[in-house]
Design goal:
With about 400 residues, this protein is of the alpha/beta class. It has 15 helices and 14 strands. A six-stranded mixed beta sheet has the order 3-4-14-9-10-13, sandwiched between helices. A four-stranded parallel beta sheet has the order 7-6-5-8, sandwiched between helices. A two-stranded antiparallel sheet has the order 1-2. Helix 10 links the parallel strand 9 and strand 10. It starts with 5 loop residues before the first strand and ends with a helix. The structure holds pyridoxal-5'-phosphate (PLP). Pyridoxal-5'-phosphate (PLP) binds next to helix 10 and helix 13.
Amino acid sequence: MNKKGYYGPYGGAYLPEILISTFEELTTAFEKAKADPEFWKTYEQLMQTYSCRPTPLTPAENLTAHLGGARIYIKREDLNHTGAHKANNVMGQGLLVKRLGKKRVIAETGAGQHGVATATMAAKFGFDCTIYMGEKDVDRQRPNVFWMKRLGAKVIPVKEGTRVLKDAINEAFRDWVSHMDDTHYVLGTACGPHPFPEMVSYFQSIIGTEAREQILQTEGQLPDRIFACVGGGSNAMGIFSGFFDDPVELVGVEAGGKGLQSGQHAARLCSDDASPGIAQGYKTWFLQNDEGQMRGTHSIAAGLDYVGVSPILADLHEKKRVRFEAATDEAVLEAMELTMKKEGLIPALESAHAFARAFEEAPKMTASDIIIINQSGRGDKDIFTIADAFDDPEWKSFIRDTAERYHA
Ligand SMILES: *Cc1c(COP(=O)(O)O)cnc(C)c1O
């Protein structure tokens, strides 16, 4: 990265004049925190006592035997508090907010996972908390909205535009512009204007640091390949960053949706439907048409359904340090089912993208090869989607009966 937060041609901070001093304040606070060894110690301690760190590296012996190739390990980010790697980011930013002396946090959320994580952090630190969420998403993600409110957050349904994630992001920026003095915007992934891509990746690097130590301790050697799913790119940046200086192949798996030819996917770095552009304050590859109009996206995993991608990953893609692949909804469901049956693990639909691609490649490798799959989160939250996808008749009647009980 250069001074202004560029990674090759990507990144930067394209900001309205009024936000520039706030971003400078944030960048300075982050730089200071990073230079202070006590800060990382405090962060590690917080994650140990609040969020189950270090998370285990689980040998997947049954999957390894079943697939018959590389030895498979799974990094268990699903065991974090609130069920995903998102805790790493929000707790880190929470500590930074304390240093900034601010009392209020805001965040955008699509599927609601980042909203729940942020509301959790705000409760723990005693911050006032407002979550912006597209009105459509509020309707679709009721359980997460319920938890955010129980945790004490204000949830504001955004009625602008197409009433989804990107509209929530715009609204959160609008709030920030009028409350810069006491408010911090907790951005949810390794995207957005500098310093967010770097800062979020920094907190998530705890995944890769642990994974590297763990595999060296158990196997006495580095892994050959690492697989991580890529939405905005924060869990991938987290595990990859432990291995950038090693001869380890890094594979980012995007949402292939209904196939790369279908137009219904969210693959920015491995499809023909994306190109470089500037939006939401930074430069990266966006799913857009020739006129720069953002395309609609689709994925069975709500957390991967985003038009942009981390500028750091866009650069690593161009430099060929990270290989990008896509996994279709169908392959994801198959991988999920196999993982549940063979290992008793329930990966989130997002994480299952990494599993799907790993299962395709592992059999072509040998028993002396090692792969690590990053299980970014747990799948409990996906019960509605998965029950639908498997067309579970008993689940349907349960939902019908519950609805009738409320009508009575
Ligand atoms: C939010 C989420 C993702 C996608 O975000 P990244 O920033 O790409 O990591 C992936 N997995 C899970 C479980 C999530 O909740």
